[in-house]
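Whiteboard transcription, Tuesday session. T.W. wrote the structure tokens on the left side:
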């Protein structure tokens, strides 16, 4: 993740980016995030259950309903290695490409697909900032709980715009900051105090879970991230807060 006000211009780009509450070099951030997800890949559902109280499953269902996948269209699910979103999208008959920078996450997803007897999904290791796909290759681009872990968010958004066809749609599901009085403080205390402890108890990995909580706090708020989507060239951008903004569904169109 990069500072929301940063730019990818080499003359003005910051020397450091955030890794949770720490400031590290961009290359170190990429390496550290990779290590986090290698550590939690086999316990991905456990991680999300710990961070959301199990509600992530309902949020993902809602997210896919907003995408409205259709039979025959081509969808890129970025940072979707474990298949949670792709499996839901594929039920419509859409042709889904699952991309993730982390091979361990992709392995988990492929194993799950085999257990579910699901075929037809394309699995590929990709960096969201430098996709290998051609221009205008997809009808839709989805990313769920992944963009806050990207080193340079603006680059990832630019790539999403590039690989979408005219009329293509962008959808992002991500943790944000709830605006509900009272609830914000309760969730903040829960996430900072309990989630790392649960990570230690259930997965023997307190540090990875602490980073994931901190990464949410460093992610741009809903209004700022919406502006970043606009700046990437998308139009008719929209944000749908869930639980007052604890989670948000962002969308935009390429014309």
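and on the right, the sequence the group agreed on:
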């Amino acid at each position: 993740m990069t500072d929301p006000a940063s730019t990818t211009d080499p003359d003005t780009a910051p020397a450091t980016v955030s890794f949770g509450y720490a400031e590290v070099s961009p290359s170190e951030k990429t390496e550290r995030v990779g290590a986090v997800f290698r550590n939690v890949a086999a316990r991905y559902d456990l991680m999300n259950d710990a961070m959301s109280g199990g509600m992530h499953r309902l949020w993902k269902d809602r997210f896919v309903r907003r995408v409205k996948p259709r039979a025959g269209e081509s969808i890129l699910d970025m940072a979707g290695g474990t298949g949670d979103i792709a499996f839901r999208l594929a039920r419509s008959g859409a042709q889904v490409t699952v991309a993730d920078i982390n091979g361990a996450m992709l392995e988990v997803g492929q194993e799950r697909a085999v257990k579910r007897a699901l075929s037809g999904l394309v699995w590929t290791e990709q960096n969201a900032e430098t996709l290998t796909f051609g221009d205008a290759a997809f009808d839709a681009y989805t990313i769920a709980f992944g963009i806050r872990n990207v080193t340079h968010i603006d680059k990832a958004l630019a790539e999403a715009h590039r690989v979408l066809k005219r009329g293509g749609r962008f959808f992002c599901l991500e943790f944000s900051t709830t605006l509900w009085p009272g609830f914000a403080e309760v969730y903040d205390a829960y996430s900072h105090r309990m989630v790392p402890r649960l990570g230690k108890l259930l997965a023997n990995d307190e540090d990875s879970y602490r980073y994931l909580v901190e990464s949410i706090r460093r992610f741009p708020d809903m209004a700022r991230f919406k502006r970043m989507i606009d700046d990437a060239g998308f139009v008719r951008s929209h944000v749908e807060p869930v639980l007052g903004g604890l989670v948000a569904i962002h969308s935009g169109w390429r014309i």
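Someone added at the bottom: The chain has one domain: 17-253.
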